[in-house]
Amino acid sequence: QVQLVESGGGRVQPGGSLRLSCKVTGVTFSCRTLRWYRQRPGDQREWVAQINSDGLTSYATSVKGRCTISRDNVENIVYLQMNDLNAEDSATYYCFVLGSGHWGQGTQVTVSS
């Protein structure tokens, strides 16, 4: 059974940083493409970043240059390092294993002074 457990969210001031983590079980982690999405209240879920099995990364324009996605194929964890956060980054963040159809519970990020 596929399970995704996100953590690392919280409240941070504008300009601050957070590192989100997502522990994945139930899939052959090292072979899978992994994504982060986020969803603000009242909005659709939007894609944030992706890392494939070769370590190639891509980012949404809104976070490019401020966020870094990475993966640990030993611990089966995908990370999202977020820097220079602003109010527009406030959302619930979810990780996703491409092709799995499963979502975690998300982790809340609030950027506020």
Task: Tell me what you see in this structure.
Strand 7 and strand 8 (77-82) form a beta hairpin. The strands form 2 sheets. The protein has a 6-stranded mixed beta sheet, with no helix packed on it. It has a 4-stranded antiparallel beta sheet with strand order 1-3-8-7, with no helix packed on it. It is mainly beta and 113 residues long. The model has no long low-confidence stretch (mean pLDDT 96). The protein contains no helices and 10 strands. The protein has strands at 3-7, 10-12, 18-25, 34-39, 46-51, 57-59, 67-72, 77-82, 91-97, 107-111.
Features:
four-stranded antiparallel sheet; mainly beta; 10 strands; 113 residues; six-stranded mixed sheet; globular
Tally of contiguous helical segments:
0
Helix content: under 10%
> How many individual β-strands?
10
Oligomer: single chain
Q: Structural class of the secondary structure composition?
A: mainly beta
Please give the largest β-sheet. 6 strands, mixed
Quickly describe the structure:
The chain is 0% helix and 49% strand. The protein is built from no helices and ten strands.
